[in-house]
């Protein structure tokens, strides 16, 4: 039993460029699947609060959207959401993909590596402007030379925004426990904010939509750019204990509809089956899932979709 007098609870925000590994880290810290993880960058659209327990401390993790240079309304809302999550936190961790950052400086660096390094520079500039001190976590260190990592951390420390550094692999867990203990020490004294066995503070309709959207990108990530959204339009608890969920997958153009449907509807069937299997497991009951694909060129201007994910439409 936990001694109530010793309880601590607070918020830890994890910021970083898209694809730095934020969602993987949140999932590793909480020990459950909270944020969706795909090979597509920029898949987290709203701050998912994962809840990690460390001794008497409850760490509420704000998994922010990746911070990048915004171009569209949705981009602006996501970046504003990320910085908002950081401002409200008791401690901020800046997660950097170490391998990508090193690659960006060499000939083998891809366009994605260079974009990630540019986004990291943007984040550092913002932190310098606000005088914010944060914890640096170098991620994806697997197979990297120690002297290379030390040189990178030294270079980043010269920016003046970091108080300390942790070298981790969110994918296999190396160094994550040390970081978790550091986060626990930063939590202010006070009663826990959530029940001990709760892993996330995500409305179930939103979680269901995100799980389906993950399956969409896992299946069609090559053919479909960022032009799909999923909305849970109906969530019904049935008398037999099961749940009936209706969802709409929005695409921007008519030519994208057949990509989601697949030949003879096989792709949509696969998406629905995989999403249903995961929802059965997460909700602990049988789920009947019904998917519809709609073409809406202006779905990114839908206030209702922004509201579903807790994003500010008017940024």
Automatic annotation (TrEMBL):
<dbReference type="GO" id="GO:0000028">
    <property type="term" value="P:ribosomal small subunit assembly"/>
</dbReference>
<feature type="region of interest" description="G2">
    <location>
        <begin position="42"/>
        <end position="46"/>
    </location>
</feature>
<feature type="binding site">
    <location>
        <begin position="139"/>
        <end position="142"/>
    </location>
    <ligand>
        <name>GTP</name>
    </ligand>
</feature>
<feature type="region of interest" description="G5">
    <location>
        <begin position="168"/>
        <end position="170"/>
    </location>
</feature>
<protein>
    <recommendedName>
        <fullName>GTPase Era</fullName>
    </recommendedName>
</protein>
<dbReference type="GO" id="GO:0005525">
    <property type="term" value="F:GTP binding"/>
</dbReference>
<dbReference type="GO" id="GO:0005829">
    <property type="term" value="C:cytosol"/>
</dbReference>
<feature type="region of interest" description="G3">
    <location>
        <begin position="63"/>
        <end position="66"/>
    </location>
</feature>
<dbReference type="InterPro" id="IPR005225">
    <property type="entry name" value="Small_GTP-bd"/>
</dbReference>
<comment type="function">
    <text>An essential GTPase that binds both GDP and GTP, with rapid nucleotide exchange. Plays a role in 16S rRNA processing and 30S ribosomal subunit biogenesis and possibly also in cell cycle regulation and energy metabolism.</text>
</comment>
<comment type="similarity">
    <text>Belongs to the TRAFAC class TrmE-Era-EngA-EngB-Septin-like GTPase superfamily. Era GTPase family.</text>
</comment>
<dbReference type="InterPro" id="IPR005662">
    <property type="entry name" value="GTPase_Era-like"/>
</dbReference>
<dbReference type="Pfam" id="PF07650">
    <property type="entry name" value="KH_2"/>
</dbReference>
<dbReference type="GO" id="GO:0005886">
    <property type="term" value="C:plasma membrane"/>
</dbReference>
<comment type="subunit">
    <text>Monomer.</text>
</comment>
<dbReference type="InterPro" id="IPR015946">
    <property type="entry name" value="KH_dom-like_a/b"/>
</dbReference>
<dbReference type="InterPro" id="IPR027417">
    <property type="entry name" value="P-loop_NTPase"/>
</dbReference>
<feature type="binding site">
    <location>
        <begin position="63"/>
        <end position="67"/>
    </location>
    <ligand>
        <name>GTP</name>
    </ligand>
</feature>
<keyword id="KW-0963">Cytoplasm</keyword>
<dbReference type="InterPro" id="IPR030388">
    <property type="entry name" value="G_ERA_dom"/>
</dbReference>
<dbReference type="InterPro" id="IPR006073">
    <property type="entry name" value="GTP-bd"/>
</dbReference>
<dbReference type="Pfam" id="PF01926">
    <property type="entry name" value="MMR_HSR1"/>
</dbReference>
<keyword id="KW-1003">Cell membrane</keyword>
<feature type="domain" description="Era-type G">
    <location>
        <begin position="8"/>
        <end position="189"/>
    </location>
</feature>
<keyword id="KW-0694">RNA-binding</keyword>
<feature type="domain" description="KH type-2">
    <location>
        <begin position="220"/>
        <end position="297"/>
    </location>
</feature>
<keyword id="KW-0690">Ribosome biogenesis</keyword>
<keyword id="KW-0547">Nucleotide-binding</keyword>
<keyword id="KW-0342">GTP-binding</keyword>
<dbReference type="GO" id="GO:0043024">
    <property type="term" value="F:ribosomal small subunit binding"/>
</dbReference>
<feature type="binding site">
    <location>
        <begin position="16"/>
        <end position="23"/>
    </location>
    <ligand>
        <name>GTP</name>
    </ligand>
</feature>
<keyword id="KW-0699">rRNA-binding</keyword>
<dbReference type="GO" id="GO:0003924">
    <property type="term" value="F:GTPase activity"/>
</dbReference>
<feature type="region of interest" description="G4">
    <location>
        <begin position="139"/>
        <end position="142"/>
    </location>
</feature>
<dbReference type="InterPro" id="IPR004044">
    <property type="entry name" value="KH_dom_type_2"/>
</dbReference>
<dbReference type="InterPro" id="IPR009019">
    <property type="entry name" value="KH_sf_prok-type"/>
</dbReference>
<dbReference type="GO" id="GO:0070181">
    <property type="term" value="F:small ribosomal subunit rRNA binding"/>
</dbReference>
<feature type="region of interest" description="G1">
    <location>
        <begin position="16"/>
        <end position="23"/>
    </location>
</feature>
<keyword id="KW-0472">Membrane</keyword>
């Amino acid at each position: 039993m936990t001694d109530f007098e010793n309880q601590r609870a607070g918020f830890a925000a994890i910021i970083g460029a898209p694809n730095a590994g934020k969602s993987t880290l949140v999932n590793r810290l909480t020990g459950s699947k909270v944020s969706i993880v795909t090979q597509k960058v920029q898949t987290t659209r709203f701050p998912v609060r994962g809840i990690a327990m460390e001794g008497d401390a409850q760490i509420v993790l704000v998994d922010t959207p990746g911070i990048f240079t915004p171009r569209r309304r949705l981009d602006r809302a996501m970046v504003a959401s990320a910085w908002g999550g950081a401002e409200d936190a008791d401690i901020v961790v800046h997660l950097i993909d170490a391998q990508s950052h090193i690659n960006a400086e060499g000939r083998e660096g891809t366009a994605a590596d260079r974009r990630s390094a540019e986004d990291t520079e943007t984040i550092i500039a913002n932190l310098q402007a606000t005088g914010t001190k944060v914890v640096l976590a170098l991620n994806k260190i697997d197979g990297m030379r120690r002297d290379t990592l030390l040189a990178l951390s030294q270079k980043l420390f010269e920016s003046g925004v970091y108080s300390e550094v942790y070298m981790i692999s969110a994918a296999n867990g190396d160094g994550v426990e040390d970081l978790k203990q550091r986060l626990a020490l930063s939590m202010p004294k006070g009663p826990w904010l959530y029940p001990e066995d709760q892993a996330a503070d995500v409305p179930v309709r939103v979680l269901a939509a995100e799980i389906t959207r993950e399956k969409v990108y896992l299946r069609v990530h090559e053919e479909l750019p960022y032009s799909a959204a999923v909305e849970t339009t109906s969530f019904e608890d049935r008398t037999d204990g099961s749940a009936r969920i209706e969802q709409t997958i929005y695409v921007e153009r008519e030519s994208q509809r057949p990509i989601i449907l697949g030949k003879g509807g096989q792709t949509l069937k696969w998406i629905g089956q995989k999403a249903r299997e995961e929802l059965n497991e997460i909700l602990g009951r049988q789920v009947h899932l019904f998917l519809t694909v709609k073409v809406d060129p202006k779905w990114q201007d839908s206030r209702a979709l922004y509201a579903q994910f807790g994003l500010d439409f008017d940024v």
